[in-house]
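User: Reviewer 2 asked us to show a designed sequence for the structure in our supplementary figure. I'm pasting the structure tokens here. Could you produce the per-position amino acids so we can include them in the response letter?
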């Protein structure tokens, strides 16, 4: 199961140990995946052992520390069922795994903090949303994220147009049967459905769908993306009582949609909203009272003065941070056996529930903290 939310990222950031190993690796999903993935993890384990030795561990201690990585590499079934990237968080007692179907920068880090900066963009920019697939022949409501989707069970959601009209058809059949000996009445009830009547049937169907969907979507306070036959989608948009309908819609045959396509198209419809939210955060920092630089930002976080933190995940600044005293020591970026201070900023912010926004240096002078 994917662990992809902001809360999950904060939990990874909260892992506490004197020494930790973090591995981020791109994993193969096809064509000799087992052998390639095994090689990738074994190489990462060797690099982790080298870094642990720089921290003063003996050969036997480094081997024991990374043994869970080697054990995972020998599991052929798991090596053959990877999503795209694998992150491993390892300390002296356990190892935790995270799989994402999106590539992240590869890294092997050893330090006093788990390395989470490669996960900031794919996890912090993740959002939940609903997708409603519509046609006369079927309806489906899906709760989705950037990476996965699940069908929502709604007992009041009509199965299709025929299901909505089942009682009408029963009454019409009964009425036709009872009057068939009268001749004229039988002809009245037996003729084909007119265009206006078909339209009314469709609108009734849409209203019943909307009644079932509206409560769930409103209670979750999530946006809704529409997919399906153009006429049904158009009628739904006209009559729906929902306010959070995404403007972009997808005119497709719902019965041809794979779950991966639902996620891909739904997420594509959300990208403009995500960009708007990001821009609003950057504008807020640009117009508010901010501090920039590693020392001021860490001080603002730990002293409870930070209302938001902005970092560039691609930046690296090496050094150490003493949480008790608040002292920061920077060293040349190519120095080994020290932590990445940019990562420490992100970890400390998440631990203290300060919102973190991944940015670039073109947007703000980074790292930066928006002050209360």
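Assistant: Here is a per-position design you can include in the supplement:
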């Amino acid at each position: 199961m994917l662990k992809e939310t902001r809360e999950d990222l904060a939990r990874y950031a909260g892992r506490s140990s004197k020494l930790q190993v973090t591995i981020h690796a791109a994993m193969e999903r096809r064509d000799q995946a087992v052998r390639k993935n095994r090689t990738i993890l074994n190489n990462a384990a060797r690099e982790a052992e080298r870094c642990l030795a720089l921290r003063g561990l003996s050969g036997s201690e480094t081997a024991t520390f990374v043994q869970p990585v080697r054990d995972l590499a020998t599991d052929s079934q798991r090596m053959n069922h990877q999503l795209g990237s694998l992150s491993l968080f390892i300390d002296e007692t356990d190892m935790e795994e995270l799989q994402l179907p999106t590539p992240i920068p590869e890294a092997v880090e050893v330090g006093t903090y788990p390395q989470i900066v490669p996960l900031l963009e794919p996890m912090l920019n993740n959002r939940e949303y609903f997708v409603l697939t519509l046609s006369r022949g079927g309806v489906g409501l899906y709760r989705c994220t950037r990476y996965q989707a699940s069908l929502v069970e709604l007992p009041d959601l009509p199965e299709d147009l025929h299901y909505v009209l089942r009682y009408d058809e029963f009454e019409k059949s009964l009425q036709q049967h009872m009057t068939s000996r009268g001749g004229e009445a039988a002809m009245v009830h037996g003729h084909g459905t007119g265009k206006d009547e078909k339209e009314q049937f469709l609108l009734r169907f849409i209203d019943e769908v909307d009644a079932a969907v509206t409560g769930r979507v409103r209670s979750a306070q999530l946006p809704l993306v529409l997919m399906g036959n153009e006429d049904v989608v158009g009628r739904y948009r006209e009559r729906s009582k929902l306010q959070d309908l995404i403007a972009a819609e997808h005119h497709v045959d719902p019965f041809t949609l794979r779950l991966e396509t639902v996620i891909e198209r739904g997420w594509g419809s959300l990208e403009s909203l995500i960009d708007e939210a990001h821009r609003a955060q950057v504008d807020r920092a640009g117009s508010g009272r901010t501090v920039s630089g590693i020392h001021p930002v860490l001080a603002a976080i730990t002293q409870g003065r930070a209302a938001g933190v902005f970092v560039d995940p691609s930046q690296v600044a090496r050094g150490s941070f003493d949480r008790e005293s608040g002292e920061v020591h920077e060293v040349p970026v190519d120095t080994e056996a020290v932590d990445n201070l940019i990562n420490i900023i992100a970890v400390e912010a998440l631990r203290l529930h300060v919102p973190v926004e991944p940015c670039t240096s073109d947007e703000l002078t980074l790292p930066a903290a928006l002050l209360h």
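For the response letter, you might also mention the following. Residues 133 and 139 are 6 Å apart (CA to CA). Residues 129-271 form a domain with the Nucleotidyltransferase; domain 5 fold (CATH 3.30.420).
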